[in-house]
Amino acid sequence: MTEVDLQLLAGEADVEVSIGREMPEEAPAGEATIGAGSVGTSSTITADAEAISQGTTTGRYLLVWFTSLPQVPDGFRAELAEVVVRGH
Questions:
Q1: What is residue 33's predicted lDDT score, i.e. its pLDDT?
Q2: How far apart are the first and last CA of the chain?
Q3: pLDDT (tens digit, 9 = 90+) per residue, 56-86?
Q4: Which of 43, 50, 78, 36 is nearest to 28 (CA)?
Q5: Dihedral (Cα; 81, 15, 45, 61), 10-degree rounding
Q6: What total of structural domains would you count in the chain?
């Protein structure tokens, strides 16, 4: 995996993207994060160059972890509309 395209329905949120061979059972601790950034209605998260060079961008499970959410009238919420994973 080299890129993940994320599309939210509205607003902007901060995310971390992790990939692994096992299904995650708890919140990521940061060591498995391969990319991070702010996403909106159309954004691309590019895998960290070090993660690509170390070969840690392969796996069966992709985790998109929201680290901040946009404010909506009744609180905070993000709606993820589409995820596209690109590799080489």
A1: 82
A2: 7
A3: 778 888 889 999 998 889 999 998 888 998 8
A4: 36
A5: -80
A6: 1
Structure confidence at residue 31 (pLDDT): 61
Determine phi and psi for 69, rounding to 5 degrees. Answer: -120, 150
Give the CA distances from residue 58 to residues 13, 29, 40, 74, 82, in Å, rounded to whole numbers and listed in that order. 25, 18, 25, 38, 20
Give the domain range for residue 33: 3-86
Alpha-helical regions (H) of 33-76: 49-54
Residues shown for the chain = 88
Nearest-angstrom CA–CA distance, 56 and 59: 8
